[in-house]
Amino acid sequence: MRNIVTRKSCFLALLLLLLLTSQFASAAQKTLSKEHPCKRFVLYYHDILFDGEDVANATSATIANETKLGNFNFGKLVVFNDPMTRDNHLLSPVVARAQGFYFYDMKSDYNSWFAYTLVFNSTEHKGTLNIMGADIVAAQTRDLSVVGGTGDFFMARGIATIETDTIQGAKYFRLKMDIKLYDCY
After folding, report:
1. What is the 3-state secondary structure (H, E, C) of the chain?
2. pTM over 0.90
3. 20 Cβ contact partners less than 8 Å away, ≥ 6 residues apart
4. pLDDT tens digits, the chain, 185 residues: what are they?
5. Which of 22, 51, 110, 162 has the fewest Cβ atoms surrounding its Cβ within 10 A?
6. Which residue, 161, 153, 150, is CA-closest to 183?
7. Alpha carbons within 13 A on the beta-carbon side of 14
8. Contact assessment for residue 121 and residue 132, using Cβ atoms and an 8 Å cutoff
9. Cα dihedral angle (36, 37, 40, 45), rounded to 10 degrees?
10. Is the separation of the CB atoms in 79 and 69 below 8 Å?
11. What DSSP designation does 49 have?
């Protein structure tokens, strides 16, 4: 009789453990929905390329000149510390800084590859978002990957959809960035 009670107790304990484990596993799974990001905001990226004269206003500089392979800046490498604003006005309050680099990586068309960190340090947000990917300049919109973050954006993942808002020669361009985060903690 005692052996039957012990077996029933072990069975009930095992069943309880199995139920608790399955509850935790199902709670840890997240459902990602393209239409419903957990966080979304639009920012404008302003890049002013240093041309050898405008030290005070430049936010980026070429550190490796383009090669002679094609007519599309192939091999050109640019580092930047660009202001990010909520609207398309360069003199609007800066809500973040984009710090990183891009290089032109195609000989037959304008195409670049970006890797940068958005650094937020305001009363609204503190932390970083890490973004990287191909920028096919001729496309209307391009998606770059949000691959991580810190602070308010701890371990964030998502998509930054960019589109060219304006280009003023080789010196200034502005991108509209629609940032959608799907993995938020």
Report:
1. CHHHHHHHHHHHHHHHHHHHHHHHHHHHCCCCCCCCCCEEEEEEEEEEECCCCCCCCCCEEEEECCCCCCCCCCCCEEEEEEEEECCCCCCCCEEEEEEEEEEECCCCCCEEEEEEEEEEECCCCEEEEEEEEEEECCCCCEEEEEEEEEECCCCCEEEEEEEEEEEECCCEEEEEEEEEEEECC
2. no
3. none
4. 556 555 555 555 554 455 545 554 444 555 666 678 999 999 999 999 998 888 889 999 999 998 888 888 898 999 999 999 999 999 999 999 999 999 989 888 888 999 999 999 888 899 999 999 999 888 999 999 999 999 999 999 999 999 999 999 889 999 999 999 999 88
5. 22
6. 153
7. 6
8. no
9. -120
10. no
11. B
Task: Report which residue type is found at 82.
Answer: D
Q: What is the phi/psi pair of residue 35, to 5°?
A: -80, -15
| Lookup: tokens for 38 | 């957990």
Residue carrying the six token digits 């459902």: 31
Q: Which residue has tokens 């973004």?
A: 131
Dihedral angle, C-alpha 133, 135, 140, 146, nearest 10 °: 20
Task: Say which residues have a Cβ less than 8 Å from residue 62's Cβ, sequence separation at least 6.
Answer: 49, 50, 76, 77, 78
Query: What number of other Cβ atoms are within 10 A of residue 153's Cβ?
Result: 24
